[in-house]
């Protein structure tokens, strides 16, 4: 419960991502068989080739490489934005099968929730927590009124739960979609929580394939700001942040 409790685990990813991308791309330009090409690729350092590919904008080979993330400690505000990204797969903890019944937490009984830092900084943390406790009481009351404490009552009782409710989700995205996701969601214009999530996902994948993700992040990391009048005006800070990530 509370401010940022974000946890992102890189569960799995395509083995030898650079080799697979080089293989897929070179097949487009080569008369060799798939297997002959695979042998050649294995002997090469594919970093430079991939750099060239990215510059050319030949992006489809990146779609063969996927990353699987486990995400915890985000609100439903954040997950709602995340699942707008359509070139991805998701499995999210259900509020129907998993009820938000009273749990004992710091002596109080509430479901888990996220408090935005701005609310804490405004001195409203305790106030916010009290409201969550009220919602928990209303939820428990509804479950009782609806008759059982299983999936049937949860499915309607959850209508009273807030966007602040914590959720868990497994996300799979390919490398091309990740580049797009990072460009829009690591930007200062994105909402703080999904920006934190995207930035952590970028940090994890950059460690695995720096050749693809070293210049990834908001568009201004490797070019001009594309936000026009909505620019945050902090291009130097943003570049520094993503250089050091
Ligand atoms: C700062 C910010 C503010 C936002 N505000 C709002 C808001 O107020 N209201 C709101 O509803 N949403 C809002 N969004 C969400 C936004 O509109 C997109 O739904 C979300 O970012 C998903 O991105 P996407 O559509 O580019 O791409 P993805 O779903 O990630 O797909 C990747 C790319 O594939 C292509 N693509 C995918 N599906 C199609 C398709 N069906 N047809 C054609 N091309 C496709 C597009 O090129 C797309 O960019 C906001 C996003 C940001 C970053």
Bound molecules: flavin-adenine dinucleotide
CATH topology of the largest domain: Gyrase A, domain 2
Order of helices and strands: EHHHEHEEEHHHEHHHH
The count of domains is 2
Instruction: Compute the separation of the termini in Å.
Output: 26 Å
Estimate percent helicity: 40-55%
Relative strand content: 5-15%
Briefly note the structural class of the backbone.
alpha+beta
CATH uppermost class of the largest domain: Alpha Beta
Rg, Cα atoms, Å? 22 Å
Indicate the low-confidence ranges by residue numbers.
Answer: none
CATH architecture descriptor text of the largest domain: 2-Layer Sandwich
- Count the helices. How many? 11
Largest sheet: 4 strands, antiparallel
Give the tally of β-strands: 6
Please, what is the average pLDDT? 92
| Spatial order of strands in the largest sheet | 1-2-6-3
- The shape is elongated
Could you describe the 3D structure shown?
With 245 residues, the chain is an alpha+beta fold. It has two domains: 7-91 and 167-244, 2-Layer Sandwich (Gyrase A, domain 2); 96-164, no CATH class. It contains eleven helices and six strands. It has helices at residues 17-29, 34-42, 47-56, 76-82, 117-121, 125-146, 151-157, 175-185, 192-208, 210-213, 235-244, and strands spanning 7-13, 66-75, 88-92, 104-105, 108-109, 166-174. The strands form two sheets. A four-stranded antiparallel sheet has the order 1-2-6-3. It has a two-stranded antiparallel sheet with strand order 4-5. The longest helix is centred in the middle third of the chain and has 22 residues, at 125-146. It is elongated and about 70 Å long. The protein starts with 6 loop residues before the first strand and ends with a helix. Bound molecules: flavin-adenine dinucleotide. Flavin-adenine dinucleotide is lined by residues 84-87, 177, 180, 184-185, 189-190.
